[in-house]
Amino acid sequence: MKTGIDAISFDVANIHLPIKTLATARNIEPEKLEKGLGLIQMTLPDVHQDPVVFGANALTKLILDHNINLNEISRIYVGTESGIDSSKPISSFLISLIEQKFGEDTLAECDVVDFTFACIGGVDALQNCIDFVKLNPAKKAIVVTTDFAKYDLNSTGEYTQGAGAVAMLVTSNPRIIAFDENWATSTKGVFDFFKPYRSISKEAITQNTNNDLWFDNLEAEIEIHKDQPVFDGQYSNQCYMDRTRNAYFSFKKLKNTTKTLYTTWNSIIMHLPYSFQGRRMLSEIYALDSAEKIISENIEPADYQAKIKEVAKSEEYRNFVTEKLQPAELASSLIGNLYTGSIFMGLLSTLAHYYDTNKEIAGTQFGFLAYGSGSKSKVFEGTIQPEWKAALANVKLFENLKESKEIDFNTYESLHKKEQKQSVRTPKNEWILDRIEKEIPVLIGARYYKWVD
Ligand SMILES: CC(C)(COP(=O)([O-])OP(=O)([O-])OC[C@H]1O[C@@H](n2cnc3c(N)ncnc32)[C@H](O)[C@@H]1OP(=O)([O-])[O-])[C@@H](O)C(=O)NCCC(=O)NCCSC(=O)C[C@@](C)(O)CC(=O)[O-]
């Protein structure tokens, strides 16, 4: 029996800053961001949006577009690293909103939980749901990935920001993609990117007007949690490369094959913290694998680097990128990093590209290289199913992205600093953040949401 993704939907911020505008303001060469990293624009939440809003909107679209009977849903598992509460998961917010719209107790017997492991939490949720459906073929599960990839102003992460969610229905005999048995994992505990609690003095709080700090108590030293990560960009790239390479070669071992897998894959879907990350990182695997070298082989560091550089610049590799990776990059260039949702937005971008260009891909294999900081990679593969086009008919990814509203630099900074009071876009047919109940001593308390027609 096959198991995989039967339906998919998304919700992104729908307001964006052109990368050129940011480059000019920050005195960065626009060509570096556009041609070097593949960025065109970045999205960020409007005043009424947060990760609960994105997740609830993607989930509501999934339910409405595919007439999902909620009584059939046994699990809603959320991948996120943007939790808004240390105890109450985003999935708990989602069930209350869905029941608000579709009827009380419609999800009363549904199991819900959040998975957090940086960007790979959504893949963990998916793998778990696939195993569940394999054991219970009559049951269905939903995976929601939702995040706001927010970085400090003036940091090297600033131009990779993005916000939004992807929701997927996981069933037996799925219409879009069925996953194969083998999943390879590579893990190592590192500090490449993380969001620690930080201490701040009581005096500093009274001076602080930035609402994105979360205050736990008002004793002398206060523990706060910040949305923006602590990270080391180049080291995080190295960790990404090490983990995905190890998982890729473990995957080959699991499959007991010496074939270059990327040639058997019609498309390659990688975690994309920015559009060109996949193509910049995959050249190493490409070089090692095409030279039929195995990872344990001792290669002189000097030769090794030279070989990778040579491959990355070759026409053969450029053609390979255009054919296998570029379709996944298209949406990323227009949205930015979605953390847990990035790899699934890459899948959606590829499917939508082939849908819009009327190319039949049923029966072809897609390879997945997932990464989450901290760090972990998973490599797996799946086969596109005959009904993928019918399942995708309502998604209209690129049409929707064209509707995004451009903002200017001042609006961007004021949204980032949470100084903006009015929404940039008037919400319609969607969930919004209605109010945050502020209590003393908990400065930021319960969050309330409502549906706007
Ligand atoms: C990703 C970095 C490190 C990039 O860092 P950076 O310093 O902005 O860029 P760079 O120097 O690494 O690369 C610039 C590229 O532009 C090229 N370039 C230069 N000038 C020009 C020009 N004029 N015309 C054309 N091209 C130009 C230049 O040649 C180079 O391309 P290359 O040759 O190396 O392929 C930075 O953006 C960053 O710190 N980002 C935040 C962390 C991050 O995204 N890390 C990625 C790996 S970790 C990950 O993916 C997990 C994550 C982040 O999603 C979190 C999670 O798991 O939750």
From TrEMBL:
Domain Hydroxymethylglutaryl-coenzyme A synthase C-terminal: 225-413
Record has Transferase as a keyword: yes
Segments forming domain Hydroxymethylglutaryl-coenzyme A synthase N-terminal: 5-172
Record keywords, A-Z: Transferase
Bilayer-crossing regions: none
Pfam family name, one: HMG_CoA_synt_N
Lineage top rank: taxon: Bacteria
InterPro entries noted in UniProt: HMG_CoA_synt_C_dom, HMG_CoA_synth_N, Thiolase-like
UniProt keyword Transferase present: yes
Similarity field: Belongs to the thiolase-like superfamily. HMG-CoA synthase family.
Database matches in PANTHER family: 3-HYDROXY-3-METHYLGLUTARYL COENZYME A SYNTHASE, HYDROXYMETHYLGLUTARYL-COA SYNTHASE
Protein's name in the database: Hydroxymethylglutaryl-CoA synthase
Species assigned in the record: Flavobacterium lipolyticum
